[in-house]
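Example 3.2
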Amino acid sequence: METSDAQRREAESRNPEQTAARDSSAQQRSDARVRACVRELKRPGEPLCAYVRDLDRLAEHVGDLVRRLPARTELFYAIKANSEQEVLRALAPVVHGFEVASLGEVEKVREVSADIPILFGGPGKTEAELEGAIRHGVRLIHVESLHELRKLDDLAGRRGAAVSVLLRINLKGPLPQATLAMGGRPTQFGIDESLLPHVMEQLPKLTHIRVEGLHFHSLSNNLDAEQHVKLVDYYCRFAQEWAQRYGYPLRYLNAGGGIGVHYAQLERQFDGALFAGGLASVLEQALPPETTLLFECGRYLTASSGYYAAEVLDVKSNHGRNYVVVRGGTHHFRLPSSWQHSHPFEVLPIDEWPHAYGRPELPPNAPYTVVGQLCTPKDVLASDVSAAENVGVRVGDVLLFRYAGAYGWAISHHDFLSHPHPEHVYLRE
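Structure, written as tokens:
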């Protein structure tokens, strides 16, 4: 007897430990595959620096999440996390669409697919961007202010078009704690909840705007699956009350992204199976049957399948502190500096040493700070750490930074000091 998607989702929600074990095993296979690739990339006389992305693991991880989500739920990939063409092509058959935040990102998506659904968000959209969104057939535009609504209505009127939008609301809360707060406090994002009645009064005048629901993206990098279910429940109840009060159809509710990555403890990641299982009852109790729930996740989808490999160029001590200098740095991989954390890595020992001069090294368990080649003390990838017990580090070894597939290369200042760019390697069978 064939197992339905609903039965599979229910089984996974009852056996979160089994699901976590399967995910862990898949991640370990990916780690081993990338280690082998990095060793093959190592060439004598050329310091190694490369991004390696396991596209098979990416598609598997995201596909698992899509299958776990309940019916009436769609998952979009927020391409700001990593907009490389190879990544988009790997995800296009898996996700329901892409979420973008600029006309440039719209065009990147359209190079991959002429018709895949697109959601367009972000503050300060220009006329050219809004016109481009209409021209490229964006499904939904997330409107961030009354002024943007009026501008979009004017542009759509000139083209004789009707544009579908979601109103992005900056809620008062209470909201769960997370690394980044996008709402529940003063930010540049969304329409202040207290201004919503005024916006609704103006909508009848905007005859080229078709409001199809609400959009919320209140926080980023939430690690607690149970709290995220409660957050989505809060969104659903607010949206249903809005639809009843103002008489607008609630075709879509966009619950944003906000699912995080636990960089400090890679074995304790967001529980996707628990989250998906909890959503089913939320949709049944708090959302009308005609409403589709949208998610636009970035970091959680791509981080685990990306790796940054950097060869050790020097090992030294300065004022009692040990430093490991690698080929590359924050101009390639800015995430650790941006988030002010020590990014997790492992040492890949490279035993070959072709030089007559000595090979500086640090013994196992000696703490050290990993830095790059830039002329700034802020070029730090990890501070006062050691990779693992009983593993030292030598010049010529390679540090392999894991969970580097999101907000790494995409947000880095690539050409500062004009150092070479890293290689970009994509693994796919």
